[in-house]
Structures are given as structure tokens and as C-alpha cells.
Specification:
mainly beta, 204 residues, binds flavin mononucleotide, Pnp Oxidase, Chain A
């Protein structure tokens, strides 16, 4: 068998999850009492100023955005993976929904639980997370609840972006050599490997 044939061979799989490696997000939303909840998530991507988020219907983050349509999309780097993982077994929902009982516990103060530091936002009420190199304040534009899935699809619009100084170049560009997302890859955390190259439209 030559090498090419070997690479082309596939097998049929029925994966229990399809989280094929996307940046981890810490999504901050506003609780009823004005405090901030933090939801770790990874089903997130951007279309210009629009960010598309996928959130389970039984999550405090979703409930909060239905009531108060603002959030902060914080992007941790790989050094923060243990802070993210400290949030993993927690929910801001009390009581804990049936499908999460036994695995998740209620936690009101997600900042204390994760060892992360709150900072007031400029344009939205939920606080942002100081340790995250990118903090995107955003307003909810649309929440869709598809019949075919237990996940809501939420579109939010970026209204203000904060970036740590060491990842900014030329004032308005993020430096891809100093910024590195924390990748959630089939439920395991990874950083980025070495740069391979750049696209013809790259300006940095
Ligand atoms: C790294 C990571 C990524 C996750 N990605 C998602 C996701 O994209 N969507 C989602 O609904 N839940 C995701 N979860 C699970 C939620 O964090 C979990 O349901 C949590 O209890 C929600 O918190 P909340 O109820 O306080 O909002 C993820 C968890 C971790 C640790």
C-alpha cells in the first residue's frame, strides 16, 4: 500500500461529540442581582463584528442573555486553562437542572471559584475578566432556539474590544505572534503550535 492510499482510507465513526477544536471563550452575562456569571464555552466564531455563540438551553448564561441582552466574550490564553477548568463543573443555575445533577454544582461567585479578576465594562453591564488578553463587550442581536437541537444559537454584536497591550501592533491590529487562543479540542485543552505561514490578505 503506498502512502497516499493509506491517508485516504477512512472508517465510519459515530462520535459522541464533534468539538473539533475551537477557541475557548469565557462568556460573562448579568445575573438578576447585577453580579456577573461566567460560562465557559467553545462553540463561538466571528463574522465581522457579529459573533455567533452556541449555548445549551439549560444554562445560566443563556437565561441571563434572554433577560438582559448584553455580554462580554472573554478569550483566555493557554496559561489560563486551569482557571477555565475550575469553572467546568459549575453552573450559575439554582437549582441545578436535572440533566446536570451529580456532575455539576451551583456556584454564584464564578470569579472567586476560578481565581479570575473582574473589571467594569465600558458599554455593557456584565463585568469583563482582566486576565483574558481579549475582552469583547457585545450586545445580543438575536437568539434562535432551533426545534432540532437543545442548543440556542445567539448572535451578538461587538461594541467595544479591550486587548492586552502586548498583543496589539499598529494600534488596531492584534499581533498573531503574541496572541494565542486556548483551543478546546475534543474536550482537551491545547495551545497553538508554531506558525506555518500567512494568507495573501494578511496585513501584519
Ligand atoms: C472548555 C469548555 C467549553 C464548553 N463549551 C460549551 C459550549 O460551547 N456551549 C455550551 O452550551 N456549553 C459549553 N460548555 C459547558 C458549560 O460551560 C456548562 O454547561 C456550564 O455549566 C454552563 O454554566 P452556566 O449554567 O453558569 O451558564 C463548555 C464547558 C467547558 C469547560
Amino acid at each position: 500500500m503506498n502512502q497516499q492510499t493509506q491517508f485516504q482510507r477512512t472508517q465510519t465513526v459515530q462520535p459522541t461529540i464533534l468539538y473539533f477544536g475551537t477557541p475557548t471563550v469565557l462568556l460573562n452575562t448579568l445575573n438578576e442581582d447585577g453580579t456577573t456569571n461566567i460560562t465557559p464555552m467553545s462553540s463561538a466564531w466571528s463574522l465581522g463584528k457579529c459573533l455567533v455563540l452556541g449555548l445549551g438551553m439549560g444554562s445560566k448564561g443563556l437565561q441571563n442573555m434572554q433577560r438582559h441582552p448584553e455580554c462580554v466574550v472573554n478569550l483566555p490564553d493557554p496559561s489560563l486553562w486551569k482557571n477555565v477548568e475550575a469553572l467546568a463543573p459549575l453552573t450559575g443555575l439554582n437549582p441545578v437542572p436535572n440533566h446536570k445533577r451529580g456532575k455539576f454544582v451551583f456556584e454564584k461567585d464564578k470569579f472567586a471559584a476560578s481565581g479570575l479578576t473582574p473589571a467594569d465594562s465600558l458599554c455593557v453591564m456584565p463585568q469583563r475578566i482582566l486576565e483574558c488578553p481579549l475582552q469583547i463587550e457585545a450586545k445580543v442581536a438575536d437568539i434562535r432556539m432551533p426545534d432540532h437541537s437543545p442548543f440556542a444559537i445567539i448572535e451578538v454584536l461587538s461594541v467595544h474590544v479591550h486587548a492586552h497591550e502586548n498583543i496589539v501592533i499598529d494600534q488596531h491590529h492584534i499581533n498573531p505572534k503574541t496572541w494565542s487562543p486556548l483551543i478546546y479540542n475534543f474536550r482537551h485543552y491545547f495551545g497553538l503550535g508554531d506558525e506555518l505561514g500567512k494568507t495573501f490578505r494578511a496585513t501584519t
